[in-house]
Amino acid sequence: MFEKEIEQYENVRQEYQQKVADRMGREQWMEYNEILFSAHSCAIEGNSFTVDDTRILREQGMAMVPVGRSLLECTEMADHFRAFDYMASHLQSPFDEALLKEVNRLVTEHTLSYRAPGAIAGAYTTEDMAAGDTVFGDHEMLIARVPKLMESTQRAIDDGQHPMVVAAKWHGYYEYLHPFRDGNGRTGRLMSNSILLRAGHPLLIVKLEDRGAYISALKQIRTDGTDVHLVSFFFKTAISRMQDELSQKRKLTLPMIFF
User: What is the tens place of the pLDDT at every residue in 14-69?
Assistant: First the structure.
């Protein structure tokens, strides 16, 4: 299953790696990805920061709050930067509960008290959860499944299964469990990218304009009992992103007519 998607993805990835990622250099490429990924991942959860706003905050810190943005949004974005940096610097660490909890702690560290007074950042929820039009299951039963999810995912990584398939399957099941009081979406997307980066693959960036298709694919895991749609969405999103950046590269390399 997914042989065609894997073949297309790998063909595009090889060209993308040679013509975009490698020619940027690791440091600049990661900074570019951090800004783009953070902007869209937080926007999916309602943050109004644009990519330009996110770049300004990343470069100048909390001393430069973009015009029209709230302090809460700035704080949320700053927390996401810290979580991203931690994730990206711990790619050699086991893919386990300790990593998951620390990423969630950093993602929600300075905003959780506003959204859920009394909750503890990085700790599993102590009450049943709901998000949008979805009511999740018994939180204690769902949380009890997290260790097995992390262990089976680490085995899949060690066994050399395709990282995009592993990342998508992990993400779908993790969001189904929804174990934290807040930040499950941002945490899930960060951890999925941890799987990809461990294998040397580009980050997966779900853009705000694709939120509807993304949420629909996640819902189909609960309604149809299959993650096929989410895996296909991950491949389609990754391929589209790489093709778009390759197209930008070609267009901006063409000679310009000044007069």
Answer: 999 999 999 999 999 999 999 999 999 999 999 999 999 999 999 988 777 777 88
What pTM, to 2 d.p., does this model score? 0.96
DSSP 125: P
Q: Which residues are catalytic?
A: 178
Residue whose token pair is 């461990």: 198
Cα dist from 216 to 41, 58, 133, 212, 222, whole Å: 16, 31, 12, 6, 10
Angstrom distance (rounded) from CA 198 to CA 89: 11
Distance, in Å, from the CA atom of 153 to the CA atom of 51, rounded to the nearest integer, reads: 32
Beta bridge partners of 124: 180
**Three-state SS at 124:** strand
Q: Name the strand (E) or helix (H) holding 134.
A: strand 134-135
How far is Cα of residue 60 from the mean position of the Cα atoms in its chain?
23
Q: Judge whether 100 and 146 are in contact, CB under 8 Å.
A: yes
Q: Give the C-alpha distances (Å, rounded to integers) separating 56 from 97, 235, 259.
A: 33, 30, 33
Axis crossing angle, helix 228-253 with helix 211-224, rounded to the nearest 10? 160
Q: Give the integer Cα–Cα distance in Å for 80 and 83.
A: 5
Specify the 3-state DSSP secondary structure of 180.
Answer: strand
pLDDT digits (tens, 9 = 90+) for 109-162: 999 999 999 999 999 999 999 888 889 999 999 999 999 999 999 999 999 999
Phi-psi region of 119 (alpha: psi -120 to 50; beta: other; left: phi over 0): beta
CB 100 within 8 A of CB 195: no
Whether 68 and 52 have beta carbons less than 8 Å apart is answered as: no
Give residue for tokens 């809460």.
72
